[in-house]
Design a protein that fits this description.
The protein is α/β, with parallel strands linked by helices and 149 residues long. The protein is 37% helix and 21% strand. 29% of the residues are buried. Bound molecules: adenosine-5'-diphosphate.
Length: 149
């Protein structure tokens, strides 16, 4: 049984995130989606709604949890062998590379990167939040808009 840990804020979960999860099913039997909770960083969409929403999208091959520890510790606690991250562009790569190398250095856990589909490479939760705050229709970009709040 191969299990991977997919960490993120998922505030909200977008079609870009969904595409990474779907691709990862080719490599892993089970995906644990870890929603990182930071007491200093307020989220826009309620945590419980995000958990229920993401869980409802996938059958029981995906488990959604929240964590407020180091990602490598949450990864180990949930018995995952690897961390999964999505890459949209070179900026993502530069940022992710440093974290991934550090994570391997301190825990031995490797990170697997998957490229975003071109259709979704412009999608970022931060932009979706901005659109949502200003009343724009975000339903094209998120997996199921009406369950967000
Ligand atoms: P974080 O705050 O940790 O970056 P996000 O929820 O923004 O959390 O993203 C979680 C993961 O999903 C990251 O690996 C990020 O690069 C990836 N990701 C975000 N948006 C997309 C997208 N449109 N396509 C592919 N991967 C994405």
């Amino acid at each position: 049984m191969k299990r991977v840990f997919f960490p993120g804020s998922f505030d909200p979960f977008t079609k870009g995130h969904e595409s990474i999860v779907l691709k990862a099913f080719d490599l892993f039997d089970e995906i644990i989606i870890g929603i990182g909770v930071n007491s200093k960083k307020k989220s826009m969409f309620p945590l419980e709604k995000r958990i229920n929403h993401i869980e409802s999208l996938f059958e029981n091959k995906v488990k959604v949890i929240s964590y407020n520890s180091l990602t490598i510790n949450a990864c180990k606690n949930h018995e995952c062998t690897h961390i999964l991250r999505g890459l949209r562009d070179a900026n993502d790569f530069e940022y992710e590379k440093t974290i991934a190398l550090m994570n391997t250095q301190i825990s031995g856990i490797e990170t697997i990167f998957m490229l975003s589909d071109n259709t979704y490479s412009f999608l970022a939760s931060s932009i979706i939040r901005e659109l949502y705050l200003n009343g724009a229709d975000i339903s094209k970009f998120v997996t199921n808009a009406q369950k967000l709040n």
